[in-house]
Amino acid sequence: MDFKVSSASLLKGITDVSKALPMKSHLPILENFLFVLQGNILTITASDSELTLVTEVEVDSTLEEGRMAVPARHIIDLLKALPDQPVSIKTAGDSSFDCIWSSGNSVLPFFPAEDYPETKKVSDDASTVTFRSSSLLEGINSTIYATAEDEMRPAMNGIFFDIDTGSTTLVASDSHKLICYTTTDVKAEEKLSFILHKKAAGVLKTLLLKDDEDVTIRFDASSAVFSFASTTLVCRLINGKYPKYRDVIPQTNSNILKIDRQLFLNTIRRISVCANKASNHVKFELKENQLEVTSQDLGFAIEAYDKIACDYSGAELTIGFKSPFLIEILSNMTCENVVMKFADARRAALILPSEDEAESEKICGIIMPVAV
Fold first, then answer.
1. What is the pLDDT of residues 11-51, one digit of tens each?
2. In 3-state terms, what secondary structure has residue 311?
3. Residues near 202 by beta carbon (within 8 Å), at least 6 away in sequence
4. DSSP state of 137
5. Are 23 and 50 in contact (CB under 8 A)?
6. Angle 208-210-216 (CA atoms, 0-180°, nearest 5)?
7. What residues form DSSP beta bridges with 70?
8. Distance between CA atoms of residues 153 and 140, nearest Å
9. How many CA atoms lie within 13 A of 329 on its CB side?
10. Can you tell me the mean pLDDT for 360-366?
11. What local confidence, expressed as pLDDT, does residue 24 receive?
């Protein structure tokens, strides 16, 4: 292998795929990048066996094609310390390669490319859908925080993609809260679904751009391939059945609070400062056009309350929630006003954008109350 490339271009390529490097691996070869040079395209691969990232970098010139596994940490640290300039990389014998820049040279080991595991592929009959990058990014950002850490129910540890003929909904829940993000940009000829693990979703959102670039997703029962620009992400899907989330979305909550989202969020943040640090409970006292938010920590003899004007219609109601869950939901919405619908103090509350913003705001949240 012998080629010349911009150090900045190479660094960007290896930095993008480095998100798939394992913290610890039973396979030492996975602590390396796989370099495959064909023509003027260098394909770089990193994998932890569950998640694989592949990207392509265009090189300036190729003198000899080839394949090798390059120590990841060494090449990352070396390129980070170099200013942007052309570098030459060429093998020197059977086990080392030279990285040559304008004023110096480094000799690093490499390992046989044959030892690197093959990238998993989806089956020939895999399903295909296409997202806009901005829409997929918004969907992941809007739901990933609601995923669970549940060894007994692994399906809850990911984002459920519910793809239908009229729209697609991304769903995440940790049993205390449930978040749905719906977009009409993505449709399918038949109903499809898969569960993307939160780790893969977290890596994916760091790579996606806020633009209209297409992201093609091919998936079968066990794996998914996300392809966009010059990057490919291959991951194992969560195998399991996602709960029937639509059955738990309240349809008849008749006590309705309409309020400025930022005012609501700031009030909860203020009052939660005095909440018990173990429970983080805040209490709502709802009366006609008035909301009182209170918290207390008897152990430290501290308490706080705030009364704010609002648009509330319904029965007088006292209800409690965990403040971090409310803060997360409200922080991840972008609308100016939210509507919160209650049934009573024991049943789930629904959080939605106000009616006049429902078209532009695609999130709805469900949160379980706590005893107060």
1. 999 999 999 999 887 899 999 999 999 999 999 999 999 99
2. strand
3. 144
4. H
5. no
6. 50
7. 33
8. 20
9. 30
10. 83
11. 83
Structure token digits, residue 109: 């080991």
Cα separation of 359 and 133, whole Å?
19
Write the pLDDT tens digit of every residue in 157-177: 999 999 999 999 999 999 999
CA 334 to chain centroid, in Å, comes to: 18
Measured CA to CA, the distance from residue 159 to residue 242 in angstroms comes to 10
pLDDT digits 0-9 by tens, 66-81: 999 999 999 999 999 9
For 68-97, b/e burial (b = at least 16 CB within 10 A) is: bbbbbeebbebbeebeeeebbbeeeeeeeb
Number of neighbours of residue 284 by Cβ within 10 angstroms: 23
Instruction: For residues 305 and 101, give the distance between their C-alpha atoms in angstroms, rounded to a whole number.
Output: 64
Q: What is the pLDDT of residues 198-214, one digit of tens each?
A: 999 999 999 998 778 99
Q: What number of other Cβ atoms are within 10 A of residue 251's Cβ?
A: 8
- Residue 43 near residue 70, CB atoms below 8 Å: no
Which residue is associated with the tokens 């990933």?
144
pLDDT of residue 359: 63
| Encoded tokens for 170 | 């991304």
Look at the block and give the residue holding tokens 């008035």.
290
What does DSSP say about strands 349-353 and 363-367: parallel, antiparallel, or unpaired?
antiparallel
* CA pair distance 114, 154, nearest whole angstrom: 33
In the block, which residue shows the tokens 């609002």? 310
Residue 360's pLDDT is 59
